[in-house]
Amino acid sequence: MSIDAPDLVFWIATVAGFFGGKYFYPVPRSSVASPYGVRDFAKKSPAELDFMTPAQIRAYQFNAEFAQKGVTPLALGTEEALGRQREAVRTESQAAGVDAVLLADFSMAELKEYGRTADRHDLLKRRWLTYEVDPQLQFDFPAMSDTSLPTTSAMLRAMRAADLERTAGAPGEYKLAVDRFSQALAAAEAAAGVP
After folding, report:
1. In the prediction, which pLDDT does 77 show?
2. CA 41 to CA 68: how far, in whole Å?
3. How confident is the model at residue 27 (pLDDT cuts 50, 70, 90)?
4. pTM value?
5. Are 39 and 67 in contact (CB under 8 A)?
6. CA–CA separation, 150 and 187 (whole Å)
7. What would the 3-class secondary structure string for 119-158 be?
8. What is the 3-state composition of the chain as percent helix, strand, coil, each rounded to the nearest 5?
9. If we measure between CA atoms, which residue out of 132, 114, 134, 110 comes closest to residue 122?
10. HSE-up of residue 82 (Cα within 13 Å, Cβ side)
11. Alpha helices in 25-77, H assignment, sequence order
12. What is the pLDDT of residues 74-94, one digit of tens each?
């Protein structure tokens, strides 16, 4: 029997891959597929599940079902957690006026933070808008509408940046942008002489 070059290369690659994978990339001891035996799988509480993203909840569910045969998503609480998360996405997307797809990958904790930030953002915009639509405030504080002033133009730029971050999908960046808008609005009011 003779082995030609392509067959020889195939068998060398197969043997090298087996030993290379086994010794250079072993399965970690913490894995549920570890050869060192099945670890006790700690069940997560509903509060812990609320701090996980939907992808993390599904991975936890898969690992739990793999580690302990017979465990169900109902027993793990993952289906309830995903249901709570879907409902929160629907509620927050309607309240904030953004597409639900933008919020779909957020954890419950991130959704609550996003909702608080969006409420604060709306409040700040309403506060600024009163200087634009109230004739008495326009007369008393004309600097709030004068874009040639550095503080007013900085406030408008910060407001636009917060508006853009609202639909960018990063809760931390959105919160920072709203904080900057709040500071810029306070600076513009101080420069305009608002008590």
Report:
1. 85
2. 8
3. low
4. 0.71
5. yes
6. 10
7. HHHHHHHHHHHHHHHCHHHHHHCHHHHCCCCHHHHHHHHH
8. 70, 0, 30
9. 114
10. 14
11. 46-50, 54-67, 73-76
12. 778 888 999 999 999 999 999
